[in-house]
Structure formats: C-alpha cells, structure tokens
Amino acid sequence: MNPNQRATAGIGEAPEKSKVTIGFIALTDCASVVMAHELGLFKKYGLDVTLLKQPSWAAIRDRVTLGELDAAHMLYGLVYGVHLGIGGPRQEMAALMGLNHNGQAIVLSNQLREQGAVDGPSLKKLLDRKERSYTFAQTFPTGTHAMWLFYWLAAAGIDPLRDVKIITVPPPQMVANMRVGAMDGFCVGEPWNYRAIMDKIGFTANTTQDLWKDHPEKTLGCTAEFTQKYPNTARAMTAAIIDAGRWIDSSLVNRQKTAEVVSDKSYVNCDKDVIVARMLGRYDNGIGKSWDDPNYMKFYNDGYVTFPFLSDGMWFMTQHRRWGLLKEDVDYLSVANKVNRIDIYKDAAAATKTNLPQSPMRAARLIDGVVWDGKDPKKYAGSFKIKVA
To answer: Can you give the pTM of this predicted structure?
Structure first.
C-alpha cells in the first residue's frame, strides 16, 4: 500500500480495533489526547481508549515499536529518528497529526544568572572564559527539545557538540536534576519550565516560540504497520484529538478547565497554578520580565496545528543531518511523504470539518534569521556555520 494513498476505509466505517492504548508523557502538551478521553470524544468515534503514562521518551519509543502501545503522544523528531534508525532500532513509523505548536522553553540555572548568563549571547561570553565545563539537558537525542536546544546554542555561537556537555533527562525529572546541580540548563516542555521558576532554581532564557513562531512539537505517532492494519482506527483517533484540540483552543475558559484536568496526578501531576498561566499565554521569565504571549501553546488554531506539514518533518531531518545523527543526506521529501500520513489526516479533517492548508509545505524565519521553506533541504542542512565537522 502506498502510504499516501487515501485510506481504504470510508469516513463512516467503524474502527477495526476499538480497544486502543495510547501512551503519553507528563507534559502540558499531552492535553488534547487527555481531553479527547475526558470529553468522551474517543467514544464518539467508536473507540475505547486507555491512556497510559510513561516515564520517558525511550519508554514511549520501545512500547510503541513493540506493539505494547497502539499510539502515543510523541516528539516529532522521535518519530523520524525511529523511522530512520537513528533513535533506536529502525522501524517504519507514522505521524498522524500535529498535537501542538509552541510552548516549550530553555531554562538556565540561577547560578548561571549570578555569573551574568541570562541569554544566548551572555552565555557565550561565560563559556568563552572556560572557567569550568557546563552541562545542558534535553529529553531525547533526536527529539524536539534536543533540536531546539542545539539550535539556540548554535545561534549564539556555541557549539553544542564541543563547547558544552549534553545529557538526556526525562521531562518530569528535569527540575529535580537541576536542583541537585546535575546541569546548568535544559530544554523541555511545560509545565517543567515554569516549575523551575516557581521552585526558584532557574529562569526562562528563551521560549521556543521565540526561536520559531508556531513551530511543530508533538505528534500522534504510531507504527506504519498499525496504520496498514487499522486505518479506520487511526482515522478515528486522529479525528477525536482534532476535536479535542479545537475545544481547548475555543476559549480561555476551556484552557483553564484543561489545565485543571491535566494537573491531576494521573496525568501531569503538577499544581494547576503552574500549568494554567502559560496555558493562557501569561509569561514570567523569573528574572523580572512578564508579558502576554499571543504565541502560547496551541492545539488547533483553525486546523493549522493539527495538519502534518511535510516541511515540518523535513526540518527535523535536516537538523539530524546537521548534528551528525544522520550520516548522509536522505531523500527528505520522500521520507516525509511516507511518515506524515496526510491521507489519514484528510479523512479525519473531513469528519471533523477541519480546514486544510493550501500546501503541505510552510515557511518560517527562525531565531538566527535563516528561513526554512523545505525547497532545498540538503543545501539547508549543510549551510550552517556551526554543525558536525
């Protein structure tokens, strides 16, 4: 089956597999998956879903590829890493939809602030003094947080492969590890960035939406084999979560309600007050700056969030190539066409009356001023001054 042919099942056909398990990590951006469950939207589409919280992205990877989870809230770059065999044993994967845009951040420790490092340029000056080694954490080597951290460091003239040490830490463990001095900074999703501020151990040096406005973040991921066996089920899951994202984004009241729900110990297990502020776009960086950010975490945005843009998947591959995770260039567009299941998404969009974009490609100017448009990914991947030798 050509993975981008229209799914053989019609919109009205029942899921082939009605009992489904979906994994998630304790992050605010699991919200549309959680609310699809809490609002009864999975049931609306004929699914009996069990949500299973996982301790790490490696656990998500392993349990999805082994078939212990049918699908999961997954890092965009994790899906591609597995598909390409650079984030674990190679297995063909599928990204069914986007779950959110924006809403991650880079946190630096209060100790760095005391040494004068409050942003990328001042961190660069500190590192150039070579007083000691510095350690930064991300959540999975091919994942979004790793790529945001690497991109941010490089934009400030810091080589993440040579100038600092990079470690992997599961999202819910970030704050505790910084508290005991295991790292000087990290990139992770909410609510753990704001938790670091509330616990007075760090501050927000940069939000990822300032690195790339409306950047891709998490996806609904599964194996390609799952979509081949159960295309109706894949479509039903996608439709339910599209509906949930629309509900969340439709009002601030719904966002507040979502924050209450996901704060529960069975989900994110974090105080609601730590979650709700940034869910509403109310930002405080912990060192004196407060602002209302219109580019807060979004889950629908008239369907723009949920559409699996080919250029989004291609971007992560260019960064994998930039940092030597991919040893050679691939056919970026061909791989994205296989992984990003626009065919299944279109069925779900039709079922939910969700608008489709005019093109499966989109362009953006990132924090360093470089434009990404997907037109020449090989050239783009090789164009950066700071990259693997």
So the answer is: 0.96
Cα separation values, 162 from 33, 126, 178, 208, Å: 38, 15, 21, 23
Tens digit of each residue's pLDDT, the chain (389 residues): 333 333 333 456 899 999 999 999 999 999 999 999 999 999 999 999 999 999 999 999 999 999 999 999 999 999 999 999 998 899 999 999 999 999 999 999 999 999 999 999 999 999 999 999 999 999 999 999 999 999 999 999 999 999 999 999 999 999 999 999 999 999 999 999 999 999 999 999 999 999 999 999 999 999 999 999 999 999 999 999 999 999 999 999 999 999 999 999 999 999 999 999 999 999 999 999 999 999 999 999 999 999 999 999 999 999 999 999 999 999 999 999 999 999 999 999 999 999 999 999 999 999 999 999 999 999 999 999 999 97
Q: Of 243, 253, 383, nearest to 322 (Cα)?
A: 383
- In angstroms, the CA 195 to CA 41 distance is 30
The DSSP H or E segment spanning 194 is helix 192-198
Tokens 């951040």 found at = 105
Backbone angles phi, psi at 112, to 5 degrees: -65, -40
Identify residue 195 by its one-letter amino acid code. R
Exposed, middle or buried, 271 (CB in 10 Å: 0-12/13-18/19+)? middle
Distance in angstroms (rounded) separating the CA atoms of residues 295 and 345: 24
Cα–Cα distance for residue pair 293/111, rounded to 1 Å: 27
Cα-Cα-Cα-Cα dihedral sign, residues 172, 177, 178, 180: positive
